[in-house]
Amino acid sequence: MESITAVIITKNEERNIGRCLESLQGVADEVVVVDSGSTDQTEAICREHGARFVHHDWEGYSAQKNYANSLATHPWLLSIDADEALSPTLRESLQKAKSGGLDRGAVYSFNRLTNYCGHWIRHCGWYPDCKERLWATGFAHWEGEVHEELRYQSEPRRATLEGELLHYSYYSATELVSRQQHYAALAAEKAYRQGRRCSMAALVLKPGWTFVRNYLLRGGFRDGAAGYTICRMSAYYTFLKYTLLRERYSSPKRVQ
What we know:
The chain has 2 domains: 4-170, Spore Coat Polysaccharide Biosynthesis Protein SpsA, Chain A; 173-250, no CATH class. Helix content is 40%, strand content 27%. The protein contains 7 helices and 11 strands. The strands form 2 sheets. Strands 1, 2, 3, 4, 5, 6, 7, 8 and 11 form a 9-stranded mixed beta sheet that branches. Strands 9-10 form a two-stranded antiparallel ribbon.
């Protein structure tokens, strides 16, 4: 049977981490939690569940995850966020994969299902949100400052396991707004560093197209009021990202 190390990065995740750790029981042979300075009960909850808890100052998403991955001691690495949990079906799929043997040249993906204010969102461009999360230790590393991505030592074979990665991401509309603002700022800065620009036409047209695509073409209307809110906020994210990018060019010394 294969052995798996589950790796999680945290900061003030007492609301989520217990659920995440409980879902890993019977799947992970080791759990490594790398924390960047929690002031709540995150550490206590992790230790109660038998996780290895390590403090490491924040270096950015990719660097923090790569450091956490370096602490794994088993042949397989499962990367999971604190606000995620394995569904019962996904737990069963992972247990079967462990018993049947995993392909060291493969990367395994899961469909992620996000919960917004108590609603499971199956449209809006949010599902299926396929995530590559299981690979042989040392076979991959994270790159990127915004929406980090995996880079592999060689081109992997890809497989998707049955079941869903449950994502308890937003408990309120306020959290959604805050997260969209945060990621829009990061995305604008990344685009600026890459030398990308935004025309006035793009600023005017792209937010509207984002809403139409997600709400109508991707079926966001099927998710009711929650779907409408999410699609509106996706359009807001697009508008804010391009607005901040244009501002960055107009006053590069002032805007950080």
